[in-house]
Design brief:
Elements lengths: L48 H13 L5 H16 L5 H12 L5 H44 L4 H19 L4 H5 L11 H15 L4 H16 L3 H22 L17 H13 L5 H15 L5 H13 L7 H14 L1 H34 L2 H31 L10 H27 L5 H16 L3
Helix pairs in contact: 1-4, 2-4, 3-14, 4-13, 4-14, 5-12, 5-15, 5-16, 5-17, 7-8, 7-15, 8-9, 8-15, 10-11, 10-14, 11-15, 12-13, 13-14, 15-16, 16-17
Length: 469
């Protein structure tokens, strides 16, 4: 695919057909490579860099509410359905490429359209314009969070109520990966092998097998199954548990920090950049695979971030008009604050964000043409199908961990041993459990893109009545 724009004028907007107005994001049917619409850039306007920045900043960056599905639907509706920059089949094929890449698809789509309009520099500008509003808001939220103080009872009460709502969001994430990762592209029904990959990945996480081992392993196993190589697939499946059993016999059960690489034991600026870079490179399925990696490095291994604060940063990330991976900005701010004060905090936020988004910029700007060819390779396509199905298992485990932490709460040391406080914590846990169930019901009942935002606002208000001591 050529990714260079042509300078012909933008065509007038016409009323789209009813079937093109669907906002469902799904993997496309096979499209003939010789379709001329797959190479046609004649409707793409050639914008100056300033106009391009403002176009993506105003139309998409400021209104990126509601998570990935709403963000992708907004881009598709504006640029494909209304303005007709490219054809719908071409959009679907491009989207299928970005589904298998690490990083947020909405940001990658903005980069793609920026490349069409103003070349690779345009792609960088469009990506920055989309990310910038959410980054600035997260930076502000991180600063205000540090000003409010971790011991402010009203502040903590609101976030105590928000945490089980975040657990509900993780349990029912409205994400393209969760909608289609276990669906067979031919039969359009649930593929039992992909479902098994998701379940076994969740089991492996419970056994403390590194999730990235599981992701790669089930990608390979499904690629073998797709080619009907049953014996190697079965042997590989069995060998993973034989290897785990041998490890347990000779080394013991893996510790909770077995997932950690130990790259951020202290939150120095260089460590924060490497943490963001590795997390961004491994974020298949969006933020839900980056969350456990950063959690184990910062909370468990490095111990410079508490679990409560970590869940709070995910809650804030759900509120803002940005990809959820923007939670890394908050992590970098808190790490920098621990390492060297307020100036270091702002530097840490910028550094980890650069690391987190760098891989998706590189893949999108430099390698789109190659990646589009690779995604049509049946073997590699099957590998990524298995990998994306395994991501569902990761999401389930993350949801369970967040739910456990949010319902139990975080006791203070001075409260331990007090019967009255123990009874109060039991009461608060019951309230948190009710909030979780209400959040889950609301997410399944209401699909408006502002539902998560309204839920978090309501939760913060409810916290003042439920959890103020």
């Amino acid at each position: 695919m050529t990714i260079v724009s042509q300078s012909s004028p933008k065509s007038p907007t016409t009323a789209p057909d009813a079937d093109l107005e669907s906002q469902e994001i799904s993997r496309p049917e096979e499209v003939p490579i010789e379709d001329p619409g797959l190479e046609d850039n004649s409707n793409v306007p050639q914008l100056s860099l300033f106009k391009l920045f403002w176009f993506f900043f105003y139309n998409f960056g400021l209104f990126a509410w509601g998570g990935p599905v709403a963000q992708i639907a907004l881009i598709k509706d504006q640029l494909v359905i209304k303005d007709k920059w490219i054809t719908l089949p071409r959009f679907q094929r491009v989207f299928s490429v970005y589904q298998i890449l690490p990083g947020p698809e909405a940001a990658e789509l903005c980069m793609f359209f920026g490349c069409l309009s103003a070349g690779r520099i345009g792609g960088i500008i469009a990506g920055i314009a989309f990310i910038l509003p959410g980054f600035l808001l997260m930076l502000l939220a991180s600063y205000l969070y540090s000003l409010a103080g971790f011991e402010n009872k009203y502040f903590n009460a609101s976030f105590r109520a928000v945490q089980p709502i975040v657990a509900g969001m993780a349990r029912a994430p409205r994400d393209p990966h969760t909608d289609h990762s276990v669906i067979d592209h031919v039969t359009r029904k649930a593929n039992p092998y992909l479902v098994l990959a998701a379940l076994c990945t969740a089991l492996n996480s419970a056994l403390r097998i590194n999730i990235f081992i599981s992701l790669g392993l089930y990608g390979i196993i499904y690629a073998l199954i797709a080619r009907r190589w049953w014996i190697p697939a079965i042997l590989l499946f069995i060998l993973q548990y034989v290897g785990y059993a041998l490890y347990v016999v000779f080394r013991g059960v893996p510790s909770p920090v077995a997932l950690a690489l130990g790259i951020a034991q202290t939150p120095s600026l260089i460590n924060l950049f490497v943490l963001g870079l590795v997390a961004g490179s491994l974020s298949f399925g969006g933020a839900y695979t980056a969350i456990p990696f950063i959690q184990v490095e910062a909370v468990l291994k490095g111990a410079w971030l508490t679990q409560r604060v970590f869940i709070d940063c995910i809650a804030i990330g759900n509120v803002l008009p940005a990809p959820l991976v923007i939670f890394a900005t908050f992590v970098g701010f808190q790490g920098g604050l621990v390492d060297g004060g307020l100036g270091n905090a702002f530097a840490g936020a910028v550094i980890i964000t650069l690391g987190m988004f760098f891989p998706c910029f590189v893949f999108t700007i430099a390698g789109h043409n190659l990646l589009e060819k690779l995604v049509r390779n049946k073997l590699l396509s099957s590998f990524f199908d298995g990998l994306c199905a395994a991501v569902i298992g990761v999401i389930a485990v993350i949801a369970a961990q967040i739910l456990k932490s949010s319902v139990e709460g975080s006791p203070r040391e001075e409260e331990e041993g007090s019967i009255d406080v123990a009874l109060m914590r039991i009461s608060q846990s019951a309230s948190a459990a009710v909030l979780y169930m209400l959040a889950l019901a609301a997410l399944y009942k209401f699909t408006n893109k502002y539902t998560p935002l309204l839920m978090l606002v309501c939760g913060a208000i409810a916290g003042q009545f439920l959890f103020v001591e």
